[in-house]
Write a structure and sequence with these properties.
The protein is of the alpha+beta class and about 350 residues long. The protein has 8 helices and 15 strands. Strand 9 and strand 10 form a beta hairpin. The protein is globular and about 60 Å long.
């Protein structure tokens, strides 16, 4: 599970994004981290092998220009620095970040994880993430592996080159290569706009006087901002998000997304309160405890349900967050890279140090 932040508004985007990711990276990311901003038709970016501390150490990262940007912190799922998000198209007109996995689509009839990568390679695309094969990620003709989100980035860029508007291209890419994901993107032809698309992974939108904030969980939103509304980007949609609001276009997922219902929220509260005790547990572990709530044959919205239930329980002082230091990604162990995992315990649990 990864974490994403986005901002478009009247403030400088980089400091806003960095603050939000410091609040949420430990819930699921913290191993590979990167940022992109858009200003005057040009993309600016930086990414590192490691957590937010590593990204904050990059000279000038707080001063990246622009009032529109995206930031990503990735889970420990293989690769190296070039497997960190954001991914940029070869001509640096598009930046792309995503959260999720192939999920149920891996066993769907006709799914071919390598097809898009091979076709893009045939068209001359250069993959910065090209490396030895990693797990079930796509492979090129010579057997090397590439990150599936970089494949999606180049696919969107290719569709734009073929004449589709950027949001339409993102939506078509989601339907061409379906997965249990959510994505944000920036395109130089869309100033002051964040492009988004979502199947079932979480993406919260907070609307305030100074712009629109986006994050995997609303727990990332700054405490000093007064939000007029906090919403969930609908399942099965693409969107163009601007300072003054957003436009949304729905699409029909090949596998239906199970709805978030009041009964599921109520059941999630009971399950998580019983599940969370004196031993700190992670967000992925909490998500796993909610697996029983979803029907077979549909895409679950575990992460959304989990994050929103935990946010409510935090507000009621039923649980609290405990930071735990953990080893960083294997690729960074030689450099002594560590990460911080934010875990949950019952509010009545004895406080401990790590």
């Amino acid at each position: 599970m990864c974490n994403i932040a986005g901002y478009v508004g009247t403030r400088d985007a980089a400091p806003v994004l960095l603050e939000m990711m410091e609040r949420e990276a430990g819930f699921g990311g913290g191993y590979y981290t990167g940022i992109a901003t858009l200003s005057d038709g040009e993309l600016y970016s930086a990414k590192v092998l490691g957590d937010m501390d590593r990204l904050l150490a990059v000279p000038g990262v707080r001063e990246l220009p622009g009032t529109c940007g995206i930031l990503h912190s990735r889970s420990n799922s293989g690769g190296d620095r070039e497997w960190a998000h954001p991914f940029l198209s070869n001509d640096e007109t598009l930046a792309y970040v995503a959260n999720g996995s192939t999920g149920m689509f891996a066993s769907a009839p006709g799914y071919d994880r390598d097809f898009a990568a091979l076709e893009l390679e045939r068209r001359g695309v250069r993959f910065s993430s090209k490396s030895s094969a990693v797990g079930h990620y796509p492979r090129l003709a010579d057997g090397s592996g590439v990150h599936v989100s970089e494949v999606m980035c180049h696919l969107v860029r290719t569709l734009v080159a073929d004449g589709f508007a950027p949001e339409d291209a993102l939506r078509r890419a989601f339907l061409t290569c379906p997965a249990e994901i959510v994505a944000l993107a920036l395109h130089v032809s869309c100033p002051d706009t964040i492009l988004a698309a979502r199947y079932n992974q979480p993406m919260m939108l907070g609307r305030a006087a100074d712009g629109v904030y986006l994050a995997t969980t609303a727990m990332a939103f700054p405490d000093d901002v007064r939000f007029d509304a906090i919403d969930l980007l609908p399942a099965g949609c693409s969107a163009s998000i601007r300072c003054d609001g957003w436009t949304i276009h729905g699409f029909t997922p090949p596998i239906p997304v199970a709805p978030l219902t009041p009964s599921r929220y109520a059941a999630a509260r009971e399950i998580l309160f019983d599940f969370i005790g004196d031993t700190p547990v992670t967000v992925p572990e909490c998500c796993g405890a909610l697996d029983v709530l979803w029907p077979d044959g549909s895409l679950a919205q575990n992460a959304v349900l989990c994050y929103e239930t935990l946010r409510s329980m935090l507000g009621e002082n039923r649980v609290r967050i405990v930071p735990v230091t953990v080893p960083g990604a294997p690729e960074g162990r030689a450099e002594g890279i560590e990460s911080t995992s934010l875990r949950f315990v019952r509010a009545s649990a004895r406080r401990c140090t790590h």
